[in-house]
UniProtKB/TrEMBL annotation:
Record's cofactor remark: Binds 1 pyridoxal phosphate per subunit.
Name listed for the protein in its UniProt record: Phosphoserine aminotransferase
Pathway terms, separated by semicolons: Cofactor biosynthesis; pyridoxine 5'-phosphate biosynthesis; pyridoxine 5'-phosphate from D-erythrose 4-phosphate: step 3/5; Amino-acid biosynthesis; L-serine biosynthesis; L-serine from 3-phospho-D-glycerate: step 2/3
Principal subcellular localisation of the protein: cytoplasm
Span of domain Aminotransferase class V: 4-349
Cofactor: pyridoxal 5'-phosphate
Matching InterPro entries: Aminotrans_V_dom, Aminotrans_V_PyrdxlP_BS, Pser_aminoTfrase, PyrdxlP-dep_Trfase, PyrdxlP-dep_Trfase_major, PyrdxlP-dep_Trfase_small
GO MF terms held by the record: O-phospho-L-serine:2-oxoglutarate aminotransferase activity; pyridoxal phosphate binding
PANTHER family: PHOSPHOSERINE AMINOTRANSFERASE
Cited function: Catalyzes the reversible conversion of 3-phosphohydroxypyruvate to phosphoserine and of 3-hydroxy-2-oxo-4-phosphonooxybutanoate to phosphohydroxythreonine.
Amino acid sequence: MSKVYNFCAGPAMLPEPVMEQAKEELLDWQGHGCSVMELSHRSKAFVDVAQQAEADLRELLGIPDDYRVLFTHGGGRGQFSAVPMNLSRQGQRADYLVSGSWSAAALAEAEKYLTPNRVAEVQVVDGLKRVSDASSWDLDADAAYFHYCPNETVDGIAIDGIPDTGDVPIVADMSSTILSGPLDVSRFGLIYAGAQKNIGPSGLSVVIVNDALLGQARAQTPSIFDYQLQAEQGSMFNTPPTFAWYLAGLVFKWLKTQGGVAEMHRRNAQKAAMLYGCIDDSDFYINAIHPDYRSRMNVPFQLQEPALDKLFLQQAEQAGLTALAGHRSVGGMRASIYNAMPVAGVQALVAFMQDFEKRKG
Ligand code: PMP
C-alpha cells in the first residue's frame, strides 16, 4: 500500500521523518539493546528523553519560567475534569465560552464540580456561523477561571485573539491548535492539549500551568490529576505514557529543524488559504463559517448535493486522500490539515475537489 495523505482530525498524521526515525531505532534505541518503550520511566536514559522533550517544547513556545509543563494521561477530556477539580472550590463559578462541540462538552463535564456560566455561544448571522462579539460576553469578575477552546475541531471555528478577562485566569483547550503558530503563553493561566493532533500519538496530554494556580486541588482530586503533585514529581507520580512522550520529543525536534512555530504558521496559513479558496471559488462546496472565525487546522465543508457524499469519499480514498468524512455529529466533509500535513497534500486535495466538481457538478 502506498503512502496516503491522511486528513484525520486525530489521531492525525505525524511527520514522516519522525516516523522514519522511530522505525529506525524501534528495536535498539541508542545502543541500549532494547526499545525506548522498554526502558524504566525512572531510568536516567528515559528521564533525559523526557527532560529534553520539555526543554524543546519550552523553547518552541517560549514558555516562561513560572510555568510548569506536565506530560499526563487522560487526553483532552481528562482535562475537562482536571481543570475544575484543580482550579475551583466547591460552590464556585467559572466562565465557559461555548464556540462549538468541544467547549460545550467541557462545560457539561465542569457541571459536575461547579456552576458554569455560559459566557456566549455560536451565532448564525447571514447564514454564517460566528462567535458573538466579545463586547457582548457575559463575563463574571468572580469566576474561578475563564475556559475556552481557541480551535473547535469538529465545527471548524477558531478564535484568534486572546480574550480580555481582567484578573480571571484564562484556561484554553488547545488540543487542535497548539504549536500551529506563535503563542503568548504568559496571557494564559493554563493551556492543555491532547497530543494526537500536533504533538504526537494519543495517550498523552500536555498541560502548561502557571505556578500561581498550583496547590489548590480539591481534596478528592485523583492523585494522577493533581497538578501540584504531578509538577513536584516531574509528571512521574505513576508510569507516564513513555513511548508517546518520546515520540512527542521527536516531533518537537522536527519542528525546530523546520523553523519552529513561526514557519508552521506560515505554512498553515498557506494551506488553509488554498483550501478555503477552492471552496469559495465553487458553487459546489460550502463552508458556512464567517471568514474571521475559520479554522486553519480543521476545514469542514459540505457538498451542495449531499447525495454525492459517499461517492466523493470513495473516490477521494482511491486517490490516496483518506479520512475526509466529517465528524459523526455533523456529517459532510472535514479536512484536518495540522502541522504534519504537507502543502503537497492540500494541493492534491484541491486538485481532486476541482476534478470531482467538474465531473459530477
Ligand atoms: N478538545 C478538543 C478541542 C478536541 O479536538 C478533542 C478530541 N478531538 C478533545 C478535546 C478530546 O480529546 P480526547 O479524545 O483526547 O479526550
